[in-house]
Description:
Number of domains: 2
Helix content: over 70%
CATH architecture of the largest domain: Orthogonal Bundle
Number of strands: 0
Order of helices and strands: HHHHHHHH
Largest sheet: none
CATH topology of the largest domain: Rna Polymerase Sigma Factor, Chain: A
Structural class: mainly alpha
Shape: globular
Oligomer: single chain
CATH superfamily of the largest domain: RNA polymerase sigma factor, region 2, helix turn helix motif
Strand content: under 5%
Amino acid sequence: MKVFTPPGVKYVDHMNPAESSWLISECIAGNEEAITTLVRQYETGVFRLALSICNDVAEAYEITQETFIAVLRSLQRYQETKSFKAWLYTITINTARSHLRKRRLAEKLRTTLTAVFHVEVQKSSTPEEVVIQNEKDAVLWKALNSLDERHRMVTVLRYFHELSTTEISEILSIHEGTVHSRLHNARERLKKALEQLNGE
Length: 200
């Protein structure tokens, strides 16, 4: 079941609650056109969020695909007390973290086997073809990756996906005060990191 098609879909995010509710109802009813609309409405945002977590383009595609499959299977359990975008991003983050756990286990197994059999196991190179348009974006991306996951996550959700602190607190299951604190600390760390990178 392929629900994610990477090529050049323009990201738009302006659906009002009524439109979102109608679209979700149509998806639950099995309307294929509605499902396509839902996926294309949010796929770029989901992909960018996945990429910010795993820093691997190929893996981000897989996470995006798995996220939408999980979303479509779980739509009937979605409760509108939480914004759809926040609910969707929660699933994205959980899927991405699951991928990271699997990656770490695979790397641990690789290391163990290498030690046991005294052989060189060639690791696959991480794709460097990250979606970065210019040198300034590259510097910012490098600075973002210098943050730990807790601070990088709130920064990406707030400034790249323009979510409110309330939505971020829902997605990450933390207090809004914690969100504000992490954002403040992240801004300070980013400022220092960018100063160091620009001085290289």
